[in-house]
Structure formats: structure tokens, C-alpha cells
Amino acid sequence: MERRRVPPQAGLGPGGHRHRSGGPSDGAGDSDPARAAAAPPRHRTPARRDRAPPARRARPEPPSGAGLPGGFDRRCWMALHCERLPPDCSAQPASGTPGDERIHAALFAKLKELLVRRASDGDPPAPFLDGQRYYEQGLYEEALKQFKKIEDTDFQAMYQLGVMYYDGLGTEEDPERGVEYMNKIFNSDSPKARHLKAAAAYNLGRAYYEGRGVKRSTKEAERLWLIAADYRNPKASVKAMSTLGMLYSMPVLKDLKKAFFWHSEACNNGNLESQGALGIMYLYGQGIRQNTKAALKCLREAAERGNIYAQGHLVEYYYTKKFYSKAATLAKRTTENNDINMLAKKADCHPTYVAKGVAMAAFYLARCLQLGRGIKQDQDAAKIYYSKACHLDPAVASDLEVAANLGRI
Predict the structure, then answer these.
(1) Among 28, 29, 53, 119, which residue's CB has the most CB atoms within a 10 Å radius?
(2) For the residues of 178-229, what is the DSSP string, one character each?
(3) How far is CA 224 from CA 147, 227, 229, 240, 349, in A?
(4) Which pLDDT does position 396 carry in this prediction?
(5) Distances (CA, A) of 271 to 57, 237, 277
(6) What does pTM read for this prediction?
């Protein structure tokens, strides 16, 4: 479930940007789509999207994985992105590695010493803050003990317990119990629970979508995510907005105009994944009138912020437009790091799409190396990158290889 270091006001984006008012409409577009879609901090009103696009030459659908996210296994994009731990915590070795027990004991001792010293200075113990410190250090069993002390009176502790039971942190996985805690927050009339309601609704939506702790229901997940993403609520969940954009791109509820709207809302509140999705929608004219200028602006800014999927699409665009040097340069940078999970965590984007972005970049870099386009010809290196593309995403590599053999790229 969605994890938090200290449950913040749920609707603030990375730069503290709050949601704007306005709602979904039947139209899409903007008098200047490039300006409207590109910058996350900008707050704009959804404009008309009902104008018919001009007639244009028919073009084939983008290859699998190269177009709008959709049509994949439900767990491809559903896993939640946790808030990152502080650098000194995330650098710890994984459980079971040499030295893990020693480091765990040292952290526990250090925290215990800090809490004892604070109490001796006259600062009374605060179970939630103590639990949160343990939680941030990955000492989940100790955190669980602290949160349990105040689970009936502290909604923040209740929220963390819901996350921990659902995901099995410091305890056995118990999705039903995790859902129970989230329902208590979501259905509470207490003002102290108000700032957690959107996040609780989002997590309940995840439970219904995955069918864990409750009977699986996409419709109920949609309902809860719409509540969590309420565009009139400045504390709404930006994650829910982006998730709705993904959901409406999926075959089960496919509505690309709604997908575009919610990705726009999420992008305007700083969501990096939605910024890349908007670029792809503009590029292929999905849910919005095709606009290459707006697409490139979105994709370039998302790529600069670390969206690997956007980088892969930019590589493809540069290659197909015969900007081979640009394609090769960006592809080399995109394929430098092989740690997909680390890249996903750093950018707060789903690993599936990170892998697809790297696979696309690797394929086009291999193509450049094979044919000597924009880079010195090197058949051996080309084979390595073809292999990397196939390893990361066989579907993407296969479709692009077919397109290459047919002379389309």
C-alpha cells in the first residue's frame, strides 16, 4: 500500500503544488497544447477537446510497448510506489546479506539511545514518532509495537498499521486486516482523519483492483480512486489521478479522453509518470488531437526528470526522423544503468515501464551500431544491445525487429 514517512497533506505534489479546480469534460486540448501539457507546476483549466482532428495519412499502430501504456498484466502498473527512505537507510544491505544483523542491531541501539536521551531531557515519549523513526530505518517489528500502542486513538498510526499488515512489513501479510484499518480511516467522521482519507481511499482501491483482502472489483477500485482523486479537493491523491489515467487506458475501461484528463491532472501536480504518458498520447493522437510539438515538450521534460519510458520514446522518435546522432547519444545514456528497480525507485515510476524504455533505447542503439548511423559501426556491440533489448522486454524487441525487417525503421 501507499507508504508515508510522516503522513503529509495528501494532495501536495513534489513542489508543494496544489490541485486546481475544474473537472473532466467531453473535450480535450488547449489553445496552446505544448504550453498546457508540459510543465507540472502549471495550473490550467481543461480546455475543449471536441474539435475533430484534421484528416491525415493513416499510420500504423505503435509497436507493443511503444504506445500508450495499456493491455498488460494488471500487476504491470498497479504496484504502488513507496516514498523513498532516507539515503542512510536505503544504503543498508538487503536482508540476509553479510553484516545485516550487525547493522540492524546497531541501528536499533542507536535509536533506543536517542529515545531514552529524549525522555531524560523531559520530552515525553510519543509512540507515533518513535514508531515512525523505527519504520524509516526499516526496523518494522519495533515500529509495529509502537503503532499498536496507540492504534485506537491515533489515525496516523492506524494508517501505518494498515500499510504494514497489507504489505507484510514487520509481520505476516494480512490484507484483510490492512483493509480493515483503511476502512476505519475512510469511514471516520473525525477531523483528525480528514487528511488521510484520500490516501486510504486510494489504498482501498488498490485492494479491490488486486482482489487482496476483498473481492476483486475493477468498478469499486475505479469508484474509490475517483474519490481519492477528487479534483475539487486540494488534499486529493495525485497517485490516484495518475492511476486513473492508467486505468482508463486499459481495455477493461478504455476511455482515452478520461485517461488524458486524469494524466493532465496528475502532471499538473508534479507526477512524472503521467507527464511521460501525456507526451505519448500527444505523439500518437490518443485521447487528444495529435500534436508533435506538445508531445516532444512533454517527453523531453519528463526525460530530463528521469522518466526512462519517455527517454525510450524520444530515442525512437529521433531515430525514425533520422536524427541518428541524437538517438545514439540519448540511447547510450538511457542504457548505462542496468538496475531497473533502482531506476524505478529513483524516478517513482513502475519498473515494467522503466524496463520497456531501456529495451527501446537498447534496440535503437543496436540498430545505430549495426548500420553505423550516428555512431561508429560496431557489429559486436550491436549484438550485445540487441540481446539486452530482448532480455528486458521480448515483446518490444520482437515488434521493433519486425518493423526493421519490413524497412519501416
Answers:
(1) 28
(2) HHHHHHHHHT---GGGGGGHHHHHHHHHHHHHHTSSS---HHHHHHHHHHHT
(3) 26, 5, 9, 9, 22
(4) 73
(5) 33, 11, 10
(6) 0.69
